[in-house]
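Troubleshooting log. The previous structure file for this entry was overwritten by mistake, so regenerating from the original sequence record. Sequence copied from the archived sheet and checked twice against the printout by T.R.
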Amino acid sequence: MVDMIFSFGELGFQEFETSRYLTTILRENGFSVEEGVSGMPTAWVARWGQGKPVIAFGSDIDCIPKASQKPGVAYHDPIIEGAPGHGEGYNSGQAVNVTAALVLKRLMEREKIPGTLILWPGVAEEQLGAKAYFARDGVMKDVDAVLFTHVSDNLGVSFGPDSSGTDLVSVEYTFKGRNFGGGSDDIGDISWTVPTITLRFPSNIPDLPGHHWANAVAMATPIAHKGATAGAKVMALITLDLLLNPKLAEQAWAYFKNEQGKETQYQSFLSAEDKPSIHLNREIMARYRPEMRKYYFDPSKHKTYLEQLGITYPTIRENADNRINKKSLAR
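Regenerated output below.
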């Protein structure tokens, strides 16, 4: 899943291949899938199980412009010059969630553990495009806890209003003064609707610039594979704790109501008439997708995307022939 989604490299609201791939896996494993959620063609909600507690897994799926990069190559070497790519690492998060969900489904069936698993994608996170609509439209209604995953270079957990991240919505402000903040995501609307934690898992390497082609270097390599596997194990174990100990969800809601929401009441910036901007990035993907299709990962022929691309991992130094070709192209 890590390698396949990396190869799709789809911008926000245009994640058709990614969503089709993930929903096919989930349907084949007994999940019911609702598509076109909140008016977004690439948004979906997958469900399995019955009864309480209801645990929802979320992770973003879009990529960023001009971040095409050969994995495992430690210098700028695009798969397709100018094309989008996963220079933010979102190709790994749904792999964590789906792996955890499939393992949990088997355990719940075998041990007769009640509960419901829900999976959803963060569509167009880079445009702050989906989560506020999910919150407004009741996608998280009756959910007991949200477990959200985000790529990082280590394992870590954040929750509640004291998180160091910046919760964002797409709004234009005019102001005087100085915007201090850290990493950002539009998870804010969901985290003010239902108890939410964010699990960061180690599928990337430290001290990268973020949202840059360099952040794609590790994202279809053994680093990403091992990190996503570690994250999936943690997701599964956290969820098992919630399934087997109902008091944990009760405690999460007590914190949510009595501390997080004690003085601050959530109110959406969206009106009932607002609609997601699903036209965004359509022209860019139409320009690059035909060429990108040639490089989609084919697991029937190759064990890894590195193997398919013929990359020796890791490739640290640019060879002389490549430098000469680049200079020729520049002229």
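The first strand starts at residue 32 and ends at 35. Archived copy saved in two places this time.
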